[in-house]
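Exercise 7b. Backbone tokens:
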């Protein structure tokens, strides 16, 4: 605790001088008041020390821009009233949605003062709360007492889930317990949903739904086969980048976009009963294998991982992919999300494709457009090395390799649909 007693000391010195210079009833009264103030100060110190503080935040896991409620109670465990109490909660780096982080007033004996507010967080990751400060001041402002309490509170913020309409993977392995006579590994007897028509055969059109909506809608069947998914999400700054100071600043925004896209892809594939092995490349490797029982372990890894501007060789994307090469097979679909790739990566990508069923690479240097935002013109200029990779992506499509350098005005869905239509031509 910290004490500010300078005004009280000055008052005490004046009282002593008054007794020395003019001893009498006035100086005696002044001395009595001074003694009372010191007793009041010591009692207040004991009361502040006895204050019982409890604080909590809930829920402990949220998505970005979801509400987090913070509640703090300060209970007066003494038999004395304590007045002019100011409480301030040094909360985390989110923003206040409602309420206030400060409260002031008096606390009666064996009663509590409550502080409650609601926060939201714009970025994923672990967010910590710093502590609680209690400030008590005497009525005449002759002294003040300050007590800081470290209360460990933490929440984990998941990235927002990017909605994905469709992401085709090569279905080869049968799903346990499901049977079908159709070689395409879809069960046409079980319709799981509908979506807008995009060039499918006419027998898949859902005519009643089309008449109701006014647009052609097609049936989505349950899959009776699955593809093993290996997903690599690279949060680190690649070594090929030259203007590292500029890109290091942009990497923080990229992490948010990459985590959103990854969470959307994971949810889409998990809902299709496809086993997913996730590797998040950050300050260390975060791995979630296909035995995960729900989304949470995947979202935990995407939220906790932090990228680095100077990764060691074992944290590089190409190192991890080539190290996992012999664990891939013809039933594997590999998905890569990176901030920056050059055309030097093409030979290694083709090596990976030679062992897997499908390879999909998303390069996101400047972010992407959310699906609910309108299309707009972009004036972003790609680095020359990345532009070379973008120019050669059409050639890679012929080898069933999707490498797309996303611009900030493109959405994930339109990129995927454009690739699927291109593949139908080949």
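Sequence design result:
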């Amino acid at each position: 605790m910290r004490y500010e007693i300078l005004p009280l000391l000055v008052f005490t010195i004046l009282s002593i001088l008054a007794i020395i210079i003019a001893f009498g009833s006035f100086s005696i009264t002044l001395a009595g008041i001074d003694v009372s103030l010191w007793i009041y100060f010591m009692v207040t110190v004991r009361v502040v020390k006895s204050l019982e503080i409890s604080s909590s935040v809930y829920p402990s896991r949220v998505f970005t821009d979801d509400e987090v409620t913070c509640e703090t109670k300060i209970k007066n465990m003494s038999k004395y009233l304590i007045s002019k109490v100011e409480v301030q909660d040094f909360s985390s780096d989110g923003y206040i949605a409602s309420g206030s982080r400060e409260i002031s007033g008096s606390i009666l004996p064996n009663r509590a003062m409550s502080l409650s507010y609601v926060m939201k967080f714009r970025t994923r990751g672990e967010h910590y709360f710093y502590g609680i400060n209690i400030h008590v001041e005497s009525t005449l402002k002759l002294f003040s007492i300050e007590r800081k309490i470290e209360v460990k509170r933490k929440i984990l913020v998941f990235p927002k889930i990017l909605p994905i309409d469709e992401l085709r993977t090569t279905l080869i392995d049968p799903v346990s317990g499901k049977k079908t006579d159709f070689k395409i590994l879809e069960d046409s007897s079980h319709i799981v949903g509908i979506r807008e028509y995009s060039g499918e055969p006419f027998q898949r059109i859902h005519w009643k739904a089309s008449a109701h909506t006014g647009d052609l809608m097609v049936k989505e069947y349950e899959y009776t086969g699955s593809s093993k998914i290996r997903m690599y999400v690279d949060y680190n700054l690649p070594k090929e980048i030259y203007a590292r100071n500029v890109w290091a600043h942009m990497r923080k925004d990229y992490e948010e976009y990459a985590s959103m896209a990854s969470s959307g892809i994971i949810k889409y594939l998990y809902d299709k009963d496809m086993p997913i092995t996730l590797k998040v490349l950050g300050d260390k490797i975060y791995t979630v294998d296909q035995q995960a029982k729900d989304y949470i372990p995947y979202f935990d890894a995407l939220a906790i991982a932090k990228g680095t501007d100077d990764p060691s060789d074992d944290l590089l994307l190409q190192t991890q992919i080539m190290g996992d090469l012999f664990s891939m097979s013809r039933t594997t679909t590999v998905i890569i999300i990176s901030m920056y790739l050059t055309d030097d990566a093409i030979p290694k990508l083709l090596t990976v494709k030679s062992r897997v069923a499908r390879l999909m690479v998303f390069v996101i240097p400047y972010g992407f457009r959310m699906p609910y935002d309108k299309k707009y013109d972009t004036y972003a200029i790609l680095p020359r090395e990345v532009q070379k990779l973008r120019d050669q992506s059409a050639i890679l499509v012929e080898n069933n390799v999707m490498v797309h350098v996303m611009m900030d005005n493109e959405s994930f869905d339109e990129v995927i649909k454009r690739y699927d239509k291109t593949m139908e031509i080949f």
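Instructor comment: The mean pLDDT is 85. The first strand starts at residue 2 and ends at 4.
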